[in-house]
Write a structure and sequence with these properties.
mainly beta, nine-stranded mixed sheet, disordered N terminus
Length: 427
Amino acid sequence: MGSTPRRRVRNWLAAIVGSIMVAGGLGVAPAAQADDTFAPVPVAVSTTPVNVASGGHATSRITFQASGPLNDVYVAFRNTATGEVHKELTQGSYSAADFTYTFEVFFGQGTPAGSYRAQYVEARTEVGNVVAYWRDGSIVHNSGNLPASGTAAVTLEALDFNYVTSVSIDRPHTSGFYRDAYWDNYTMSLLIRDSWGRLGLFPTGGNGTWKQAYEVGSGWNIFNLMLAAGDFNNDGENDVIARDGSGALYLYPADWHGGWFPRQQIGWGWHVFSSVFAAGDFNGDGNNDLLARKTNGELVLYPGNGHGGFLSASTVGWGWNGMTSIFSPGDFDGDRKPDVLARDSAGNLVFYGGNGRGGWTTSRVIGQGWNAITKLGGVGDFDGDRANDVWGIDTAGQMRMYYGNGSGGWKGSGVVGWGWGDFNAVF
């Protein structure tokens, strides 16, 4: 299990640190490594609209002028009635022409009603300096004693907004997202859920890097299991399947316009399964399938019917209750048939070869020490070599990529992200 550092993908989600709200940039940090010649300074701020009614959406925007790349930007918004600091999603973009960064903070459905005032903003540069500005635009912290840029910082009052009515979310809401490189057949893209129930997409560039991350839904904390099902209804788009606390199974079909069609309930009583995962076309009939493990260790194949539902289920294995993680990496050994990987309680990673007819070819241990990984998964090619890879999140929250060699083994590994431990679901 390697630890070679690779390019970092920054969190697209805000994370509370003390009493501040992260408003960090998204995607991969710019490649340039420049010394800071002056303190980054906020030169423009705004919120539109200022007064947000039920079901509305406020977007706060901050533009920084800087002499080098920024790693993270933190913003504190305080509810004037409760004193609670509010944290929300951010997005960022970088202009190499003038070293300006625009960070957007989205306040979506479910934000508590009230008046929100921007308290301060803190910028962390890529070379390690930290500069903070108070509400009135005055510098309150400058760790590297960076000189002023000659441009006065704007005040933060224009970031203030009012939520007129809070919105009760009783079921997941989904929103449009960028379709570029989203779950194609060859690259690995991941969905995540944070503690607020927001769903986010991390697409990859197909060459070992991440693209811009985006919010694609909210209210998903009602689900105790979610999985990327591939194209489950054969409409050419990749879908999501999720299970709620009652055991109901839902299909969220992706539409052709970067959004979602209405969800469909496709199963009942799925609470009897301790694990459910997408298995690709496991039985060779041309439709994507699911594998599900019962608490007694029985592994059951649920063949997809190609229309968003299932054909008759069948048992394909026993004794799987000794596995602490089970998933399909797709075709891992190069025979063009989906396989399964499983981690046992001793930390061994075991390869189970699929025969393409709903059964197995062989099994063998392909790794040890995997109990240091808290979350495991994958299907897709992260680095563009046409061999499927496996991702894992360690106890420090690092996203590690394990590169498959296309024949059932490994060609290396590396850290490709930090801060992934804050997400309660990655799939």
